[in-house]
Amino acid sequence: MEQQNIPQFSIPQMRDFVPERLRPWILILFVLVYQFSGGVYLASVASMVGSTQLLSEDIRMAGAASLVGMAVFFAIMFRLKMAVKSRPTFMITGMTIIAANIICANTRSVPVLVLCSFLAGFCRIWGTFECNSTIQLWLTPKRDMSVFFCYVYLIVNVAINLSGIMSVYIAFFSTWQYMHYTIVAVMAVMLLLVLVLYNDKRVMPPLPLYGIDWLGMVMWCVMGLSVAFVCIYGEHYDWWTSPYICFATALFIVTFVVNRRRSMFIRHSYIFHDLFTRFPITLKLIALIVIADTLLAPEHVLESAYMQAVLGYDELNEISLNWVGALGSAVGCFAMWIIFGKRKWSYHRMAVIAFACITAYLAYFYFLIDYNLPKEALYLPVFVRSFGYVVLGIAVLTANTRLPFPFYFTQSVCMQNMFSAALAGNIGSAIVGRMLKVLQQQNYMELSEAVDSVSGAIHGNVLPLFGTLQVQALLESMKQIYGILLIFSLLMLLLLALRKSSMRPVGEIHPLFTTIRSALSLDMLKKMRAER
Hints:
mainly alpha
């Protein structure tokens, strides 16, 4: 019955002089501004390390904190939507991002960098959600989530690629701080537009932020940051021989146990205790994302080393491949809009297509990786990799809509984003990075057995020879890692091919916001009565 009750699209939060047809495009522009913003910009990590004397791990940790901040937002996204009006939302998030960018551009303190990046990530996704939820009916009048998530992934993935290009070019031609100041200027212009274009109307009655498990939220953040710390700093501190890694591991275990115990007797915990037991699909989706991110970890670990150490590319040539990645993401979203959103192909078929693309990406590098590979030869695997990941991401995110709205849905999305955005990539990078170090040492020792500075068969300076051996050992190790991952990807593809499922994204409809508000209000009233 609710599916037929489709309200007419409008944006009453904007002033009357703003043309109706222009209003959604203004919000799409705001979304792009939010998606380009952040606390730190990982594409320019080399420039930041050189000028700040920070470790690359420090900056990556700040990036992980930003992603954790984005992930934990989803569990309370409807509560914030109902509690804060659009205009104050933009002002709060915009001013926080401006302050975070100014601080991150000037601080050398790792804790401050991590905290500011966390707040910037939280506000970044808060502002993005405010825009996207407002224009949802304009994008899909039937409120079909399989269509809506195609738009979401298009905006997010294309913006990530273009943001990396922008930050590297700014750092190359001036200094990396100018990326932060550019975002500050653009965000300030956006806030000025908000003041001019937006009124102070409230679309629905307010719902106060009462009954939220803020302590549980903090502990989930600590858990996520602990895992990220172990994965990012593990190689630097030699894993569990270091007290820092041991402390982070113990902190994760303690917060996980305490959080799970609390969720058993707290009426409305941040993440429900029965989320994973009552709906096992949540764990399946998380496992699928972790496997995919591990198989795609060479993107972060091996590709950069290959292009710099073997092919001799500079940062500009390396980051130019982001154009291909953006194109792959855009084509993937358009294809998903047709075959998944419109024609309703099954979830199983989407997973098979995604892992087929991942397998093709790994096979391409395994068979063709070489000293003299031209740059144009890298276009196809980067395109296929981006295409496959977008296909899997849209399908997995849409599958969450099969859970009850609003609580289980938002919490499942929160957990999925905690892994897909913040943790899975770092877990995969830690695994592949460790494999690379071990294999490279073994290969270097095997290749250098015949090289002896005192051998009579070798004349002259042998230092260039050792440099060549290091590059050769790196190339051999990469080929071995691609081969290992290719075998696992083929096994995963085989398991998916043998499994049958006809489940399709039919009836994946976003409820009306009035319905969501009624559910939230009823739950809040029940908690108030229980506390009395």
